[in-house]
Write a structure and sequence with these properties.
It is a single-pass membrane protein. By secondary structure, the chain is mostly beta strands. It is 6% helix and 29% strand.
Length: 509
């Protein structure tokens, strides 16, 4: 490859190359684009060889294992249009002149490295072609300043990502240069300790905005969207801030193209607007940990047919949510910690995760849950479900039926091969411990407390080799405690209290 002196583009992205950048790279004197994204390359950048690439315009080293500092001579590559060094281990101070001289820069991604010190956005003041700035971080050793010294942007960004950064500490001011931006399509300034009021002007000034992520800041006051309709916004996350009040009645008409909406961990209150039915493209909705009340609008469960994830937990919703028009295509459904009533739907849901705990639901466990290979986690605890546990129910990873009104025997035909957590506390279940439970080699937690189980603990209990938690208190078990319990090498918690055991205590206790 060293003989390819006329080579202009070298694209080796998304392979499994290892080792360092070879020395002959410096012989590619005509190279304009070096693209090594997503390999397993490592080591420091070869200074002499990299500095020889004087015509280089695009350098993509993202998603490798490079380390060390960036060669200072890169500042001379003034025709640089693209720099992506994300997801590496580059360290040290970001050279101020390194960025300032690249006035042709259009795209820069410095995410997930080990840089430290101070980085000032004023370095971008004379970069009229700049369209994309991305800086996601998982360390707080780099301070990003956007205000001092004073500067005016010559660019119009399309993408700005400054997530989990030490941004404008200690003032927490939102970057002022954003007031001058009118072509933004993606803004992610999440986890950056920003404060003040909700920046409605970002939406008013950028009519092409498709993604806005303000998650985990300290914005306060009322959450209010622009009054005009049919914005292009597809993705909105303003979760975990200090916003409050009620949502606009016409929210569904303002942002009808929305696919993702996260309003969780706020102080929102009142009813959720029925215009949510206009979110015909919605795929995920998270309203958890608020003070919403009233019934869930029927328009949600009838019209949002693309919805895949619905989280309404920890609110004050009430009424029957499972109407005949309920969305059947959901994958994740969390309704826990509300005041929902009624029964589970008769028609099969395709959920993988179902949490209806801590409500006022009643009725029997529906037949569609039996031998349902789609479901992985089911939590129906703290409700008023009654009747017997049906055969074939527990093919799941986790089943929590605690604190209901279930009765009868545990059926011997239970399928527990894949179960890791089985919680049955606080029901009216009777009978002995069935062999189906003892055949569950993956079981890690078994909670049968506060029922009316009886009989001996079978000697075959040692088959549960992965068991970490065994809770049998508050039943009518009797006889001797089998020594086979001593062979459960992974056990960490065991509670056999409030039963009728007799004889000697096993040597291992």
């Amino acid at each position: 490859m060293a003989n390819f002196s006329s080579l202009k583009i070298l694209d080796l992205c998304e392979n499994s190359f290892t080792g360092s950048i070879p020395p002959y790279i410096g012989a590619l004197s005509s190279l304009k684009a070096l693209l090594l994204y997503s390999n397993q390359l490592n080591g420091t950048l070869p200074i002499r060889e990299m500095c020889a690439l004087k015509k280089l315009e695009e350098l993509d080293l993202g998603c490798n294992n490079f380390e060390g500092i960036l060669p200072p001579c890169l500042t001379n590559l003034t025709s640089r249009r693209l720099l992506d060094i994300s997801y590496n281990r580059f360290s040290g101070n970001m050279s101020l002149s390194l960025v300032a001289n690249w006035t042709s820069l259009e795209y820069i991604d410095l995410s997930y490295n080990l840089f430290e010190g101070l980085f000032s956005f004023s370095l971008f003041a004379n970069h009229p072609k700049l369209k994309v700035i991305q800086f996601l971080s998982d360390n707080n050793k780099l301070d990003i300043k956007t205000e001092n010294p004073s500067w005016d942007p010559s660019f119009q960004l399309k993408v700005l990502v400054l997530s989990n950064c030490s941004l404008n500490i200690p003032t927490g001011n939102i970057p002022k240069f954003l007031f001058d931006q009118h072509e933004l399509e993606v803004v992610n300034i999440s986890h950056s300790k920003l404060n003040r009021s909700f920046p409605i002007w970002l939406l008013e000034n950028n009519t092409r905005l498709q993604l806005l992520n303000l998650q985990s800041n300290s914005f306060a006051g009322q959450f209010h969207l622009p009054s005009y309709r049919s914005m292009d916004l597809r993705w909105l996350d303003v979760s975990n801030n200090n916003l409050d009040g009620q949502l606009q009645e016409n929210i569904g008409k303002i942002i009808p193209k929305l696919e993702y909406l996260n309003l969780s961990r706020y102080y929102f209150e009142g009813n959720f607007p029925s215009s949510i039915g206009d979110f015909s493209h919605l795929e995920k909705l998270d309203l958890s940990f608020n003070n919403f009340s009233g019934e869930v609008p029927t328009e949600l469960v009838a019209n949002c047919t693309r919805l895949d994830i619905l989280w309404l937990s920890n609110n004050n919703f009430h009424g029957e949510i499972f109407s005949k028009n309920f969305i059947l295509s959901l994958t994740f459904l969390k309704l826990n910690n509300n005041y929902f009533t009624g029964i589970l739907p008769v028609v099969r849901l395709t959920v993988q995760y179902l949490d209806i705990s801590n409500n006022h639901m009643s009725g029997i466990i529906p037949i569609w849950m039996v031998n349902n290979s789609d479901i992985e986690i089911v939590d129906l605890s703290n409700n008023f479900f009654e009747g017997e546990i049906p055969c074939g129910l527990v093919t799941f990873d986790t089943l929590d039926l605690s604190h209901n009104l279930l009765s009868g025997l545990l059926p011997s035909c239970l399928n527990l091969e894949n179960v890791r957590h089985l919680l049955l506390r606080g029901n009216n279940l009777t009978g002995s411990l069935p062999k189906a439970v003892l055949n569950s080699s993956l079981l890690e937690m078994l909670d049968m407390r506060d029922n009316s189980f009886s009989g001996n603990i079978p000697k075959e209990i040692d088959r549960l080799s992965n068991l970490k938690v065994l809770l049998l208190s508050g039943n009518q078990f009797s006889g001797m405690i089998p020594k086979q319990l001593c062979w459960l090498n992974n056990i960490g918690i065991m509670d056999l209290s409030r039963n009728f055991f007799s004889g000697t205590i096993p040597y291992c206790f």
